[in-house]
Amino acid sequence: MHSKIKELLQFGTVDTPVEIKGWIRTKRINKQVVFLTINDGSCQQNIQVVMAPSELPKELLSQLMTGASVVVSGRLVASQGSKQAVELYGNHLTLLGNAPDYPLQPKAHSLEFLRTCMHLRFRTNTFGAVFRIRHAISYAIHHFFHERGFCYLHTPIITAADAEGAGELFRVTSLDIPPKNPDGTIDFSGDFFHKSTNLTVSGQLAAEAAAMGLGAVYTFGPAFRAENSNTTRHLAEFWMVEPEVAFNNLDDNIALAEALLKFLLDYVLKKCPEELDFLHQRLLSHTNAQDETGTMPLLERLQFVLEQPFARITYTEAIALLMDAPPNKQGRFVYPVTGWGMDLQSEHERYLVEHHFKRPVVVTDYPKAIKAFYMRQNDDGKTVAAMDVLFPGVGEIIGGSQREERIEYLQAAMQHNQIEDLNWYLDTRRFGTIPHSGFGLGLDRFVLFVTGMENIRDVIPFPRTPGHVAC
Ligand code: ATP
Ligand code: MN
Question: Residue with the nearest Cα to atom 16 of ligand 1?
């Protein structure tokens, strides 16, 4: 039985015989010794293997190269030089697979280069750290909701509903070329579902129906949006966490969002110290520690967000603040803030977070015209009980609301937004309607924040963006 490198580095006892399996990261050879560093993905660290060249056949020696896979047995010894407590004195090595012309060298490659060979990225320190952190966050999400009595709900991937009413849909069809009706519209009657279907943009509507019986539910799955935003914050396929809670109002919803984000941060800080430390150092060496935004080093930033209460501001207050903000007056925003009613752009969100409040900000009560139809109308008749949580570096990380539980308001909003075909959804309001709230947390954007990576393509294994679907 072979051991995981993580276990050997943490708990291995000196002088015990062990076997490891992994990939060579680096090799150094001189007349007396061969040094190999081996990684098996179980942790950030490599284990150092020390062997006498005489124990390795000549032709094998030349095949030990970065990227090759090996099995090494030997005994653990207290390490002399290296950072680790133990290393492995090997007495037997088997080559599983060699790696001639392996594109990754034992040096830091640019993230752009690594995006051209995504299937190999998993073998680098940076992506090992990112994906172990992504895993830890995913696990902690289930933990958080499970402990609070939420039911994990699997909402459909193929749906007939457009939850946002905003287009951006990927159509699902089994037809080669769907025929057209005489009036030019597409005839779906011969299609698999006999109607128009698409990949889900959000599980929310289904989650609302479930919350009407289960009380508190959450979804955690992929969402698909054909938005042509080629930004560092958008993917065509991303992962979203959507809690939906019966009887919660907007304040409860904000409190749940803040508790979730802080729980996740705390969890990663405790469970992934080596990964975070690696990414922290990586950022320090890649950026001027104090660039013009005064960005904190990664670990400080995470700790800071964990400890600060989130700021809260209404949309109306935010617009007034932004109108008066120096970058707006000096024309430094790409999208000038002209007045009430406009949507906030990422640069405005980041100004609020990074320059004004210097901590996460929850913006509430947006104009109803720029938000989805299901959000609860406020008494002013102009705004809705919406909440966006904005994070440093990332901008919007959560979008949510208290839902419109009054059927006549909901029907009016649906008519206004030309949303049809949601009769089943109206039943949630026809039968025992209640106040309720929920939100969507973009997992990928949260991983972006936690890892300090700058492009959302670098926190998901195989990113899908306009024009790009490698692998
Ligand atoms: P944005 O304005 O940034 O496009 P949105 O208003 O469309 O976001 P919501 O519909 O509220 O976002 O979705 C909830 C959350 O899902 C967002 O706060 C964000 O974290 C995430 N999200 C939305 N669209 C994407 C996307 N294309 N790629 C990655 N994450 C996304
Ligand atoms: Mn969007």
Answer: 442
